[in-house]
Amino acid sequence: MLGDLAKAAKKAEHHEAEDFIQAAKLLIANQFLYAEKTSQRPYYFLVTEHLDYFRNLFEAIGWTLVYQADEAFVGILPGEEERTQRLKLDESLFLLVLRQLYEEKLENFEVESGRAYIDLDKVLQTYEHLTNKELPNETRMKDILALFARHGVVERGKPHETDPKNMTLVIQPVIRQVVVEDYLGQLDQLIATDEEGQSVKAKVTEETGESDAEPLPEKVEEKTEAEENVVLQDEQVATEDKDENA
User: Fold this and answer.
1) Structural domain total, the chain
2) 15 and 78 within one domain
3) Domain annotation covers residue 199
4) 144-151 contact pairs (CB < 8 A, 24+)
5) Is the CB of residue 91 less than 8 Å from the CB of residue 138?
6) Helices in 132-206 by DSSP H: which ranges?
7) H-only helix segments in 115-209
8) Structural domain span for residue 137
9) Where does the record place Acidic residues bias (predicted)?
């Protein structure tokens, strides 16, 4: 692998080996990287410009690299149970509700560039309706949102001026990569069992505690807006349909 890193860095005109290492660390910490996010953009382009290297790197540890050019994200999906994070019951239910809401937005043609915008109040109403369970308290809900924001599944907007407890959430297209099973069936099963030990079959990587991106050196050229809109790769990686317990 060190030899592959040296070769990849040598071919890269504006990058060194340390940049590749930092990009891999960021993928492991965040699971998904987006071109639209300023802090992640240089690493997104680095990974997508060297797909073969990063694909081989993560395949060596049993993970799958996922790249969707049209939705401008790249990420990793765990392939082993010990490398996934076991979700709590309320986290599992919330994740399944997000998937259901995303599908509804798709059916109604209300998705923009793969992203679904929805108010938190609507999410909570749907949670109550589908699960018939009491909502998590405000502190717990913040923790749940923070968890899925760290993994790039949702993006939190600013609180509404007239209703500070409400905000706009962005459900990212990776929700379909993370929850790939019969999500409605899982939702029914979790509601029926009502056991804290049960969790959704989701491909969420284990938390590492590090998620902040260090800026790349000045020598890395910033992509122009026109360049960002160009599809860099035609190749897309098919996701695994293998059951994984989160």
Assistant:
1) 2
2) yes
3) no
4) 144/90, 144/91, 144/94, 145/169, 147/91, 148/91, 148/94, 148/95, 148/98, 150/30, 150/207, 150/211, 151/30, 151/31, 151/32, 151/178, 151/204, 151/205
5) no
6) 138-150, 175-178, 183-193
7) 120-131, 138-150, 175-178, 183-193
8) 88-193
9) 237-246
Tens digits of residue pLDDT in 49-107 = 999 999 999 998 889 999 999 999 999 998 765 456 678 889 989 999 999 999 999 99
Both tokens assigned to 136: 């998590």
Residue 108 falls inside a structural domain: yes
Tokens of 7: 């070769």
Its pTM stands at 0.69
Structure tokens at 160: 């509404």
Distances (CA, A) of 214 to 17, 40, 41, 145: 15, 9, 12, 23
In a domain, 242, yes or no: no
Q: Residue for token digits 């992203």? A: 115
